[in-house]
Design brief:
A hairpin with a 4-residue loop joins strand 5 and strand 6. This protein has 17 helices and seven strands. The strands form two sheets. A five-stranded mixed β-sheet has the order 2-1-3-4-7, with helices on both faces. A two-stranded antiparallel ribbon has the order 5-6. The chain is of the alpha+beta class. The chain has helices at residues 19-30, 43-50, 69-79, 90-106, 108-116, 119-134, 140-153, 162-180, 193-206, 210-219, 221-232, 235-238, 253-275, 297-312, 315-325, 332-335, 365-371; strands spanning 10-14, 35-39, 57-59, 64-67, 280-284, 289-294, 352-353. The radius of gyration is 20 Å and the shape is globular. Helix 5 (108-116) packs parallel to helix 9 (193-206) and helix 13 crosses helix 14 (297-312).
């Protein structure tokens, strides 16, 4: 029996327009992990088993559950260790982790902008989601309004910075296009966690929604080709010999600047607001600022994880990371700062046994489907 058949097939609860479902699907396809995609709109069912109103979630053949793509993928890496997505070099492994986290969290806001602000995308995606979730496509306007209110206007976007949020997409296309002119994946010959972190927004939102997809085809054809390449690449076909490339070149500078002077300071400000029990905070970065943005406890945990990995590196690898960011600013100050804990380690220790029968019944599944946490 081959390794890939030992614990498969898995049931992947998600939908084929979902930001994070696309990320996890791409990983499972790359590792050739047998799975079937099942209705992820029914968040009530996922909540029934996990206590989390969030997709995607994975149900194992043994009846256990996994959720949140980062710890889910990390667990799969222990079960299917061949052709790992984390470079062996500690410094490069940290770069991969940092880029995955950045792609997951920082690109969420522009992904929401390009899905819910342009009229064509707003109507097309709103119709599709409401048809899948409630069988009521005519209510597309309700969901579109809800999403833009919840994740844009209600989360730090204003008339003053709306164009800047929109243009975050162009910033990432410029970086990625320069990378893929010279190599197949972000850090070399094989996909790393960095690729899958970027893939979440670039595939299901930017690469498939009507307005941003047309922009990508016209402005960034190498990036558009990377989406298809990652979606269709199998680790076995690439082979076990991996050639990783440490970031170099001027095209990396704007991205490193955003990470050092916007993203990591944003995580720090969010953690401090969480510590001070503030539901919202004003963030002022070098390139991007958000007024009265929401305090997100999950991003407190994101910063914790980055700090742990940075501190676990040896002096040589830390120096290499510090040198990479030196032209744009020090990141060691944030990564060495006193940790603020979100207390989420146990929550993301995977896999989990089903909670079936312990806390809730599905007496009103339609209500769960409509009212559940939309971020996925």
């Amino acid at each position: 029996m081959t390794q890939k058949n030992l614990n498969a097939p898995y049931r992947l609860h998600g939908v084929n327009i979902s930001y994070f479902t696309g990320k996890l699907e791409a990983y499972m396809r790359y590792k050739d992990i047998s799975h079937e995609l099942v209705d992820g709109y029914d968040l009530g069912k996922i909540f029934f088993h996990t206590g989390i109103k969030k997709m995607p979630a994975v149900e194992t053949p043994q009846g256990q559950w996994l959720y949140d793509t980062t710890p889910t993928i990390q667990w799969f890496e222990t079960v299917y260790p061949d052709t790992p997505i984390t470079p062996k070099n500690k410094a490069l492994a940290f770069v991969s982790l940092l880029l995955e986290d950045y792609g997951d969290e920082w690109l969420w806001r522009p992904a929401m902008w390009w899905r819910w602000m342009p009229p064509v995308s707003r109507r097309a995606l709103g119709t599709r989601i409401m048809k899948g979730a409630l069988g009521a496509p005519a209510l597309w306007w309700y969901f579109a309004q809800r999403q833009s209110r919840e994740w844009l206007w209600g989360d730090g976007m204003t008339k003053d910075n709306s164009d800047a949020v929109r243009d975050m997409y162009f910033e990432e296309l410029e970086f990625l296009e320069a990378v893929f002119v010279n190599q197949a994946f972000i850090l070399g010959s094989h996909p790393s966690a960095a690729d899958f972190g970027y893939f979440a927004s670039m595939f299901r939102h930017f690469g498939n929604d009507p307005d941003p997809a047309e922009i990508m085809r016209a402005r960034a054809p190498h990036t558009y080709a990377w989406l298809a390449r990652l979606w269709n690449t199998k680790a076995q076909a690439l082979g076990a010999k991996q050639h990783w490339v440490f970031p170099k070149g001027r095209h990396w500078t704007p991205l490193l600047d955003r990470i050092a002077n916007d993203y990591l300071p944003y995580l720090k400000a969010n953690a401090e607001a969480f510590r001070d029990e503030e539901k919202r905070f004003d963030f002022v970065g070098k390139n991007h600022s958000f007024r009265r943005t929401k305090t997100t406890f999950y991003r407190v945990w994101c910063l914790e994880i980055l700090q742990r990995h940075y501190r676990a590196m040896g002096a040589h690898d830390k120096a290499r990371i510090d040198g990479l960011f030196a032209p744009v600013g020090r990141i060691s100050k944030i990564l060495n700062a006193r940790q603020i804990s979100a207390g989420m380690d146990d929550l993301f220790a995977m896999p989990k046994p089903s909670l079936k029968g312990t806390h809730i019944s599905l007496s009103s599944p339609r209500g769960w489907r409509l009212g559940a946490q939309p971020r996925n």
